[in-house]
Amino acid sequence: MLLEVLRRSHEVEPHRVGALADEAARRLGARGSLLFLIGLQQRLLVPVGADGEPVGDPLPVEGTVAGRTYVTGRRHLAPDNGGGGVAVWVPLIDGSDRLGVLELHLDDAPADGDLWPEDLATAIGLLLSSKTAYTDAYIRAARTRTATVAAELIWSLLPPLTLATPQVSVAGILEPAYEIGGDTFDYAASGDELVVGVFDSMGHGLQAAQPSALAVSAMRNARRRGLGVEQAATEVDQLLGRHYGGERFVTALLLELSLRSGLLRWVNAGHPQPLLVREGRVRGAVPGISGLPLGLELGVDARPVNELAMQPGDRVVLYTDGVTEGRRPGGEPFGETRLAEELDKAALAGLDTAETMRRAAHAVLDHHQHELRDDFTMVLVEFRQPLPRSG
Asked: Which partner from 132, 138, 243, 270 sits 20 to 30 angstroms from 280, CA to CA?
C-alpha cells in the first residue's frame, strides 16, 4: 500500500494529499484518517480535509494529545470519541521539519512493534512537502490570519525551519509570523560544512523585507560558488552598498561550522554575539569582534572572523535584537537574562532544537502580550558529533 502511495504521488492532484492518505489508511485497516497542519506560529493544529480545505476547529498544541504528538514526535493514543475504538496520533515530519500530525481511527490499538501508522505518516509527510510547491491549499489552510506582503516575501525565501542529521541540528523561528518584515535566516548543510546566516534589516514592512531578501540571495549566491563567510560578507556588503548607496543596511551573523572538527567561524556585522549553551547551561555571549552592518562598508575588502571550538553537545543561539531589546508600549524588554533562563529550562528538560525555539519564541511573545514593536528571529545550532574520519 505504501508503495502504491508513492507510485500514485506523481499524478495525484496537489491539494488532495489528504484524500490519498485516507484511502491508504482505510486499506491498511483504519476506519479513516485526518491531517492536522501546524499553523505559522506553531500554537494551533488545523484539521485539513480530503480537498485541502480546513474542516472543524483547530486544536491547540498545548494540552491536547495532538499537540503532545507534535511536540514529542512520537505516537500517542486516545479514545476515539467519533465512534468507539481508538484514535492513533502520529507525527507528520519531512526529514526533521515538523509539518503537523496524522489522526487515524482504528478499532483496536496497533501493537507496539507495528509501525505502519508511522510509515504511512512518513510517506504522507514527504508528499505534503513536495506538493505544497504546486498549490496554495495547505498554506492557506494552516493560516489563521492574513499575512502581509512583506511576510509573504520573507517566508517564500526561508529554508525548512528544522534540519537534523547525526552531526548537527538547526532550528529557526520568526515572529510575528504574519507581519514579519526585516528579520530572516538561511542555512545549508553541504558535505562537511554547515553555513548559517541571520539577518535584520532596518525599518519595518516591505521597506525592511526587500534588503533582507537581497542579502539572503547574495549570501546564497556566494555560498553556492564555494566562498567562505569572509568573502560572502564582503559581497553582500558591496551589493547592498551599491544598491542602496549607504541609505539602507542589514545587521547579520554569517556562520560556518566544520562538521569534522567542530570549529565554528563567524562574521558579525553589527549583530548580537551568539549565546553558547554548554553542558546544559547558558555560558553567556561568545566573545568576538563585531563590524558595521552590511551595506555600510563598501570599501572594506575583509572583515574580522571570530572562532570557537565547539564540543559535541554544544549549542549556539543566534538571535536578532528584537528578542532581547524589543518591548511593547509601556513594557520592559525581554532581556538576555530571561532568554538564558528559557534556554536553560529547555536544556534541562532535554528538548530538541525545534521545540526549544518554539517555546523560547512563545516566551518572548507572551512577555509582550503579543504587542511587538519589533520583529525577531532566533536560530539554534547544535553540534552533535563530528563526521567520522575517512579511510
From this structure: 270
